[in-house]
Amino acid sequence: MRQGQKMRRITGLGAALIAITALSAGDVAAQAAKEKPKPPYFASIGAGKARMRSGPGRTFPATWLYVRADLPVRVVDVFKEWRKVEDPGGTQGWMLGALISSTRTAMVQGSVTELRDRPAYGARVLWRAEPGVIGRISQCARGWCRFDVKGQAGYAEASRLWGVGAEETLP
Questions:
Q1: Is 167 inside any structural domain?
Q2: Which residues of 69-89 are buried (b: 16+ CB within 10 A; e: fewer)?
Q3: Which of 11-15, 45-49, 117-121, 158-162 has the lowest mean pLDDT?
Q4: Which residues sit opposite 24 in a β-bridge?
């Protein structure tokens, strides 16, 4: 094989590697865009202890210490690695983004909520959950969500839960 043919083959392989790397980088960027929705959106506290601060930085004083992992929050603003969140009581402040999880949870609000075997008013009641109970949500559609509290699951009206929009759809 001559020198020119080797160079063309190496150049061709290099171009192929660059194209594959560019496609992979594009996939990573697309995935990152999917994982970082624009505010406002619901999320949850992922850490067992999380400080809420009065501003976006460690130099700002802590205003609350949350010791309840999975507490649903609404992210209302973003500044670098900080997220301005609102808790179910309406308190707003800043948390480090690493403390926030994309896991969707909700809190029962108002009065005792019935969890049913199907997403329908006439469905059999499986469980009842008191206000303040937190569970993971999925399968939200047409005003109902599957609400799972440590393995005790059923369908609850989305309007009775803080952490999901009344008409929001989730897989």
A1: no
A2: bbbbbbbeeeeeebbbbbbbe
A3: 11-15
A4: none
Q: Are residues 19 and 64 in the same domain?
A: no
Residue range 28-50: average pLDDT? 77
For position 54, which CATH number holds?
A: 2.30.30.40
pLDDT at residue 86 in the model: 98
Q: What integer best gives the mean pLDDT of the chain? A: 86
Structure tokens at 157: 């009206």
The sheet that has 152-157: what strands, in order across it?
Answer: 125-129, 113-116, 152-157, 144-149, 134-141, 105-108, 161-162
Averaged pLDDT for residues 34-61: 92
Residue 168 is assigned to a structural domain of this protein: no
Structural domain containing residue 154: 106-162
The number of beta carbons lying within 10 Å of the beta carbon of residue 19 is: 10
- Residue 99 and residue 80 in one domain: yes
Banded pLDDT at 35 (limits 50, 70, 90): low
